[in-house]
Design brief:
Two copies of one chain form a homodimer.
Chain A: H1 4-7, H2 11-22, E1 25-26, H3 27-37, H4 46-58, E2 62-69, E3 72-79, H5 81-105
Antiparallel strand pairs in A: 1-3, 2-3
Helix pairs in contact in A: 2-5
The first copy, chain A, binds a DNA duplex (30 and 30 nucleotides) through helix 1, helix 3, helix 4 and strand 3.
Amino acid sequence: MYSKELLKGTLSTIILNLLKVNGEMYGYEITQSVKLKSAGKIEIREGSLYPALHKMLADGLIKAREEQAGRRIRVYYSLTESGINSLETRKEELFGFLETLIQILNPSYPILPDAR
Amino acid sequence: MYSKELLKGTLSTIILNLLKVNGEMYGYEITQSVKLKSAGKIEIREGSLYPALHKMLADGLIKAREEQAGRRIRVYYSLTESGINSLETRKEELFGFLETLIQILNPSYPILPDAR
DNA sequence: AAATATACATAGATAAACGATGTATATTAA
DNA sequence: TTAATATACATCGTTTATCTATGTATATTT
């Protein structure tokens, strides 16, 4: 597991990107997806995930739909128009930052291509 | 300027790396160096820098040497043995995280080489 | 002479992610 | 069958990194 500090500032971007790729996901599914895709090296805690989802919902970046799964309720989230735009902006900023960071830390590293 | 949240978790690593590359630097010099190398896109605030330096000093990662510059005092910092090791560990963790992050955000991106 | 740059410092604010805790249903293992 | 674990949601308070604001003082440029 990586230091939790590294995740700061990128968690919402990760969530938005997953929603874009998969169209619709529920909370628990997001945590499992990140865990799987990162080979266990990034784990989004529920104490981080749900507040983040609620904030993005309040900010109009995502929308929610409740679905009955057996006797339990699942809340499916998907991107709004605003969320799609926000994701693009965030990814551009993030990749720009990473490019700069890598340049400072190790100038011999190859530069990342544009976020597209 | 990038979101300050993105810098969280990487600031100390940036400082340690600069000290390794340049051998010895004073605080103000570090802020200017980062500003220059990042083309103004990353600016370390003095309210972030000095507490970070003081913490790393207390943690034994860096050592300090005061030098009189005219009538003013400059505090030059350099890495300790512990700091050299810490930097290597941090860089490995950081580049590992970045690799995972990029993979999650955009699997088509090229993978970064090992941090060496 | 005034404005800006250099050079240090610290106290309090902000905000993101987390740990702990709680509730409840579903599934797997003992 | 029952105990343990996994699924699925939620919230409160804690932690901690960075920043804003503020302060002091010297040096340089306008």
